[in-house]
Design a protein that fits this description.
Shape: globular
Largest sheet: 6 strands, mixed
Oligomer: single chain
CATH class of the largest domain: Alpha Beta
Distance between the termini: 38 Å
CATH architecture of the largest domain: 3-Layer(aba) Sandwich
Number of strands: 10
Strand order of the largest sheet: 6-7-8-3-9-10
Radius of gyration: 18 Å
């Protein structure tokens, strides 16, 4: 059984069809990249999966349960986590406290107290290299550090599926390589399925994803293993502009 399944999902905004009859499956522990040019529907699709938007048509299934109209705050305890392209920290709280919030409202929500959540935050910080920032106010971190904290907070949720929205946008290539290695390691160690939305950072897609889903004008045009997807003539035409090996 697929961990996440979308069946003919359509989302409209007035006369604009932002997501058009998209079906896909994500397996437990699988690493998938969602790519496409600006306006292709990636963010809307993420918002449908995470419950920010409800689709007009189609179904969203998580572990065999229909969650199409389940709100985001109920999806998090089920194991569906998300990061955002622009990090949204509790600016005046410490880095440790920000990460602990993930533990309180994730799959362990209701079964861990504040002290236990802070201990989980300590464990996550040790793995993400954030220990030196432990007691800093989150609002004082650099943009890259905030992105890392955002990922750490999502990991503290102990998710089964993690949606990563442009986690590497704006990073230096060497920092991207380090982030790719870190995310892959965490995914494998924790058995987390990851769906990463990627704009134009092909090194991240090639380095991480087992398969790639390509959107264009709201429709899915390719769903295939990474190398095959990025060499597909349709993808080269609408997204890459040149073949991968070039």
């Amino acid at each position: 059984m697929a961990l996440l399944e979308l069946v003919d999902v359509t989302k409209r905004f007035g006369g604009l069809v932002a997501v058009n009859r998209v079906s896909l499956e994500i397996e437990p522990g699988q690493f998938v990249g969602i790519v496409g040019p600006n306006g292709s529907g990636k963010t809307t699709l993420f918002n449908v999966i995470s419950g920010v938007y409800y689709p007009e048509e189609g179904r969203v299934m998580f572990e065999g349960k229909d969650i199409t109209r389940v709100p985001p705050y109920k999806r998090a305890p089920m194991g569906l986590g998300r990061t955002f392209q622009i990090p949204r920290p509790f600016a005046s709280a410490s880095v440790r406290e920000n990460i602990a919030v993930g533990a309180m409202f994730g799959t362990l929500g209701g079964s861990v107290n504040v002290d236990e959540s802070l201990n989980i935050a300590d464990q996550i910080m040790a793995r993400t290299g954030l220990e030196e920032h432990r007691d800093k106010q989150a609002g004082t971190l650099t943009p890259v550090e905030k992105k890392l904290m955002e990922i750490a907070r999502a990991l503290a949720m102990k998710p089964k599926l993690l949606l990563m929205d442009e986690a590497m946008a704006g990073m230096h290539p060497s920092a991207i390589d380090e982030m790719v290695s870190f995310i892959k390691r965490i995914s494998q160690e924790e058995g987390i399925a990851i769906v990463a939305m990627v704009e134009h950072i092909m090194r991240a897609v090639v380095g991480m994803a087992e398969k790639v889903i390509v959107l264009h004008y709201g429709s899915k045009i390719v769903d295939a293993p990474t190398k095959e997807a990025l060499e597909d003539p349709k993808v080269v035409e609408v997204y890459l502009g040149k073949a991968l090996e070039e």
